[in-house]
Description:
The complex is a heterodimer of chains A (about 200) and B (about 80). Chain A is mostly helical. Chain A has 2 domains: about 5-80, RNA polymerase sigma factor, region 2, helix turn helix motif (Rna Polymerase Sigma Factor, Chain: A, Orthogonal Bundle); about 120-190, Winged helix-like DNA-binding domain superfamily/Winged helix DNA-binding domain (Arc Repressor Mutant, subunit A, Orthogonal Bundle). Helices cover about 65% and strands about 0% of the residues of chain A. Chain A has 9 helices and no strands. In chain A, α3 crosses α4. Chain A is elongated. Chain B has about 80 residues and is mainly α. Chain B has one domain (about 5-75). Chain B has 5 helices and no strands. The mean pLDDT of chain B is about 95. At the A-B interface, α2, α3, α5 and α9 of A face α1, α2, α4 and α5 of B.
Amino acid sequence: xxxxxxxxxxxxxxxxxxxxxxxxxxxxxxxxxxxxxxxxxxxxxxxxxxxxxxxxxxxxxxxxxxxxxxxxxxxxxxxxxxxxxxxxxxxxxxxxxxxxxxxxxxxxxxxxxxxxxxxxxxxxxxxxxxxxxxxxxxxxxxxxxxxxxxxxxxxxxxxxxxxxxxxxxxxxxxxxxxxxxxxxxxxxxxxxxxx
Amino acid sequence: xxxxxxxxxxxxxxxxxxxxxxxxxxxxxxxxxxxxxxxxxxxxxxxxxxxxxxxxxxxxxxxxxxxxxxxxxxxx
Lengths: 195, 76
């Protein structure tokens, strides 16, 4: 697609805001927290306005907009010395499921049936919802970001690799860790009623 | 045959339909015979679905017409 063709297909800026503001805010909230997410999104829109005419259509407009949002969030984290880009394959990670298996790899402490068996039923528990917010805040930034881009925003692995400049295998490792963290948090709450 | 620990390690690849035919068959054969792994996969998928739903609800609360109008006004 030529640059002219790509530009011809871009909606007006106002329409882009209506279409993608929610996705941008979701990504920014996960990366920098609620208190400054709005500011990050505003900065991202200023960057988007400046560079929209240069959009070349090499990715979807959504992916391009999310990439700018992620970069704004990273810049903000760097300024606040909160940005950590670790190699996820060499960071001393220990799965919260360690210790749940026998030497032969069978369950030693298996997963139990939960009290709440639908997403809606789980969500009615406000304490657990707060607990998840707390635990998500503690999750390493890259884990949270990969999880948000894949499971909340539905981006492809290829787009996530490009946006975060991570290898395909590292993205998959981070995503799995985030999902296991989420699972063990909910499981712990379901079993003990505590965060 | 996969063991339960390996099933957990491949849970995301299974969820994302990234296993090849042979891997998927091995995964499904273990699932058919292991109630513990059936429960784990059920809860694992439920966790993801729950967080997606939670996020949808929060997005509805956080994204207001006022906020969108404010951004549009700032960029004029």
